[in-house]
Design goal:
single chain, alpha/beta, Signal recognition particle alu RNA binding heterodimer, srp9/1, Rossmann fold, Helicase, Ruva Protein, domain 3, 4 domains, six-stranded mixed β-sheet, five-stranded mixed β-sheet, 21 helices, elongated
Length: about 675
């Protein structure tokens, strides 16, 4: 059945080209060749015109000057036509002759006759306007000047030359107009759609190339089946969704999934961004929407994919000014077009966004984007599948375990995992290794999560010692508290923009819920570095600013969103409602009073101070372990998971059992 469908689609004739369709864009080499040919043709045409208007570069002189020089015996031969007289000098003067004599010179003063030069009718020394002069011929015979007369009808040549020049400029103007209009709509084609069409045979992505989103692929399989065999759905009376909205965080593969749908269905694929519709000119966006759907209907069955739909489909009425009138007009036209074509036309609209909460409600109603497909970050199994897809063309060493690598990358999206494989391959090639080993992949994880190493940054011994105690404080508190995170690596080598050191803590399994005890342990771990500095050095530094910010945000979420404060009770205070006709930056109303807001601030402060006190008690009790681990970190610059566990067990014994959480901290 699939082979018959593919044959039917391959036999389907291509859509007819309209009168406004542009030809394929030439290559840069063809453009340069065309430009050189047009330039050569223009130079030849202008040269021909110049030769006809002034053949041979003849000097323009006055008729009386010609008569004076004729009397002086300086003229050798002339050619007389209806309105022009051309000739050559007998002896070319070295300078301008000055005023001519008023009377003819005596025969004795005339120069001796020179032998006649070979006639070159295409070369003349001078040219003048021919006047009605009855004395000219006797004077020419008296001076022994060779002369001839010809009929010189110049208007046919002038007409031909004018036509050639006009044709040249017309062709140049047409080429310039095509270049300005372009395939995506240029200066003179504002209303043309900028959507890029990919032919049904050019989309090579398949569902097997997309991993980690099995539920999303199952949802989109119906779209593929409809595009392959729409008669099956039409016969039973089913209606395929007109629009499918792909929702998910950045980098999860929404665009890749849309291309896979087009590749599986073997149909044309129109791709463009939501920001490409709106321009500064009124009405351009709506015209581009109409042009896009007209092209899609001619190429049906096809898929229209709009990336970053929130740039176009933002909720209307959120701004009382008329600044967004053009965007709203474009959105209105999109709503009309989505209602205008029927499901059996074979045009499926796919869109992607990572901000579905700001989309207009009219877009999400049944009949438009009536199906939303979540493309979320993959779990451990999905991450392993994604790593295998990206590792197909990479030489991996036998000891590389992609399942273990997937366990070490919780919360990573598909784009992050692809970047890890690529960074590992680059590191292996830089070190001249035949394959990518585990060391390169572990370093790639650190690059993606913490940034590049900055070994060139020189840190004083005092600051380096403070950073070491800070990072050990994070790791030690997290390891001693039940429910803390599993430390995988501690480093005091600067990374990224401002990180002087970092502590990497990764879970052994994916977590979707966290208890109050786990959140409290995570708070204490965040404040462990600050507390360690205070215990060892007796004062604080600016290195804990990021830790304090994250701890405050976590404590406020525990109070206002999770209901983990006995003073506030089981109420949610994190949501704020919108005011009527809100303006930009103003319009968010707090639903609780000032007294309750003060109580929330008091509870946030109490929770943070309690976590800090707990971290201080732990580090004071295990001061010897803090010193031993800090000295080992100063000597090695790195402590991996095995080294940290060995030193910790030697100092304080085995770590308490408890579930792990996701955490990372850096100075």
């Amino acid at each position: 059945m699939a082979e018959r469908d593919n044959d039917r689609l391959s036999r389907r004739p291509p859509p007819p080209r309209g009168p406004d369709d542009e030809p394929e864009e030439p290559s840069p080499g063809e453009r340069r060749l065309r430009l050189a040919l047009w330039s050569l043709l223009g130079v030849l045409a202008l040269s021909s015109v110049a030769m006809q208007l002034n053949p041979g570069g003849a000097q323009q002189i006055a008729y009386y000057d010609f008569k004076n020089r004729l009397r002086a015996g300086q003229v050798d031969e002339v050619l007389i036509s209806d309105d022009t007289l051309r000739g050559r000098w007998r002896n070319a003067p070295a300078a301008s002759p000055g005023p001519a004599p008023t009377s003819a010179p005596s025969p004795a003063a005339r120069p001796a006759a020179t032998p006649p030069r070979p006639t070159r009718p295409w070369r003349y020394d001078f040219e003048t306007v021919m006047l009605r002069d009855e004395q000219l011929l006797p004077l020419l015979e008296a001076q022994h000047v060779r002369y001839a007369a010809t009929v010189h009808p110049r208007w046919p040549a002038q007409v031909l030359l004018f036509g050639a020049v006009l044709l040249f400029f017309l062709l140049m103007g047409r080429s310039l107009l095509r270049r300005l209009q372009g395939q995506a709509g240029g200066v003179f084609a504002f209303g043309r759609s900028k959507g890029k069409m990919v032919g049904e045979g050019d989309v090579t992505v398949r569902f097997e190339d997309v991993a980690g989103v099995d539920e999303a692929k199952e949802e989109l399989q119906e779209v593929v089946e409809f595009l392959k065999s729409p008669e099956k759905f039409i016969r039973i009376g089913a209606r395929i969704p007109k629009g499918v909205l792909l929702v998910g965080p950045p980098g999860t593969g929404k665009t890749l999934l849309a291309r896979a749908v087009a590749g599986e269905a073997h149909v044309a694929f129109f791709s463009l961004s939501g920001s490409e519709f709106v321009e500064m000119f009124v009405g351009v966006g709506a015209a581009r929407v109409r042009d896009l759907f007209e092209n899609a209907k001619q190429s049906a069955p096809c898929i229209v994919f709009i990336d970053e739909l929130d740039a176009l489909g933002r909720s209307r009425g959120s701004n009382v000014s008329n600044a967004n009138e053009e965007r709203e007009q474009t959105l209105n036209q999109l709503l009309v077009e989505m209602d205008g074509f029927e499901s059996n036309k074979g045009v499926i609209l796919l869109a992607a966004t990572n901000r579905p909460e700001i989309l207009d409600r009219a877009l999400l109603r049944p009949g438009r984007f009536d199906r939303q497909v979540l493309v979320d970050r993959p779990d451990r199994k999905g991450r392993a599948q994604i790593l295998r897809v990206h590792a197909r063309k990479v030489q991996l060493a036998p000891e590389v375990d992609l399942d273990d690598l997937a366990a070490r990358t919780p919360g990573f999206a598909g784009a992050d995992l692809a970047n890890i494989i690529n960074e590992g391959a680059l590191l292996a090639a830089r070190r001249d290794k035949p394959a990518v080993t585990r060391a390169e992949l572990e370093e790639a994880i650190e690059r993606v999560s913490a940034g590049l190493e900055r070994k060139s940054r020189i840190i004083s011994p005092v600051e380096r010692r403070r950073v070491a105690y800070h990072e050990i404080g994070h790791a030690l508190v997290g390891a001693l508290l039940p429910g803390g995170s599993e430390v995988t690596k501690i480093s005091i080598v600067p990374r990224g923009v401002g990180a002087l050191g970092y502590t990497m803590k990764l879970p052994t399994e994916d977590r979707y819920l966290m208890t109050e005890a786990e959140l409290s342990a995570q708070l204490a771990g965040l404040l462990g570095g600050r507390v360690a500095e205070q215990i060892v050095f007796g004062d604080l530094s600016t290195g804990a600013s990021n830790d304090l910010q994250r701890a405050t945000e976590l404590a406020r979420a525990m109070v206002s969103e999770y209901g983990m404060s006995r003073a506030i009770g089981p109420v949610g205070l994190g949501q704020e409602r919108s005011a009527f006709l809100p303006t930009e930056g103003l319009g968010r109303l707090r639903e609780h009073g000032d007294q309750l807001a003060d109580l929330v601030d008091h509870e946030v402060k109490r929770i943070v101070e309690s976590a800090e006190l707990e971290a201080k008690m732990l580090l004071t009790r295990h001061r010897d372990a803090l010193e031993a681990l800090a000295q080992a970190l100063l000597e090695r610059e790195y402590l991996d998971a095995a080294s940290f566990r060995g030193l910790l067990d030697a100092s304080v014994g085995p770590r308490p059992e408890g579930p792990t959480t996701v955490s990372a901290s850096r100075v």
